[in-house]
């Protein structure tokens, strides 16, 4: 599948599988940095598969003004969220096939403080793409466009709330091995780290199948 237009995404914390499939569609990808920060979205949260099922991890963000650009949204580091997230990720995936292989790459992001959410998200995204062997590294937008030209716009359509997420004809989540699936079954479209820790080098093949299955 080849796209003739570029793809536009919001920033996202350890984004879902659907989000990462946009990097293998054969088109340049840009991350929006001028939109106003939006709460209760993938911008500051992700979902992993814990021992009790689907688990949400949220980065606390300082109170923002109504027109604070997402690139200026500041992380609230007062409550030790890094330790909570790191422990939750370890508990969820220490028994997965590839956790030990990748754990140190992620751990360093939780052993330091980062001021801006956008910066942290971009650093983690670049790491994920590198580990998966995806070389279509993202650019960032140069200005704000409410109705962007020459882009396929996914900024609002990839959303954790089902009532706000829009249908995506280019994504059909395919099952793969998950640590706790014998308890709760396969849970689709979790954070891409769920796919990476469970499938390792084969993770990108799952992405490809999740796109090709719609052709």
- The count of DSSP E runs of length 2 or more, i.e. the number of strands, is 6
Output mean pLDDT: 94
The figure for the number of domains is 1
Portion in strands: 5-15%
Tally of helical runs: 7
- Rg, alpha carbons: 17 Å
What's the SSE pattern? EHEEEHHHEEHHH
Low-confidence stretches: none
The strands making up the biggest β-sheet line up spatially as: 5-2-1-6
Multimer state: single chain
C-alpha termini separation: 8 Å
The proportion of residues forming helix, as a percent range, comes to: 25-40%
Anisotropy-based shape: globular
Question: What are the defining features of this structure?
Answer:
two-stranded antiparallel sheet, alpha/beta, 215 residues, 7 helices
Helix and strand arrangement:
Blueprint: E1 6-9, H1 17-21, E2 29-31, E3 45-50, E4 53-58, H2 81-93, H3 99-107, H4 117-131, E5 139-140, E6 151-153, H5 181-184, H6 192-199, H7 203-212
Give a short synopsis of this structure.
It contains seven helices and six strands; from the N terminus they run E-H-E-E-E-H-H-H-E-E-H-H-H. It has one domain. With 215 residues, it is α/β, with parallel strands linked by helices.
């Amino acid at each position: 599948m080849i796209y003739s237009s570029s793809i536009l995404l919001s920033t996202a914390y350890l984004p879902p599988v659907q989000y990462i499939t946009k990097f293998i569609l054969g088109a340049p990808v840009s991350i929006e940095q001028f939109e106003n920060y939006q709460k209760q979205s993938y911008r500051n949260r992700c979902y992993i598969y814990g021992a009790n099922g689907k688990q949400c991890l949220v980065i606390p963000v300082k109170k923002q003004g109504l027109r604070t650009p997402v690139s200026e949204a500041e992380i609230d580091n007062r409550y030790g969220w890094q330790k909570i997230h790191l422990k939750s990720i370890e508990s969820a995936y220490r028994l997965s096939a590839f956790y030990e292989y990748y754990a140190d790459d992620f751990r360093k992001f939780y052993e330091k403080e980062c001021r801006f959410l956008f910066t942290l998200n971009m650093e983690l995204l670049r790491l994920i793409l590198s580990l998966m062997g995806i070389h279509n590294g993202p650019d960032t937008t140069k200005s704000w466009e409410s109705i962007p030209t020459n882009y396929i716009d996914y900024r609002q359509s990839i959303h954790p709330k089902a009532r706000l997420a829009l249908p995506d004809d280019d994504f059909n989540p395919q099952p793969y091995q998950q640590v706790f699936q014998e308890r709760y079954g396969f849970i689709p479209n979790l954070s891409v780290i769920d796919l990476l820790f469970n499938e390792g080098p084969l993770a990108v093949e799952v992405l490809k199948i999740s796109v090709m299955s719609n052709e």
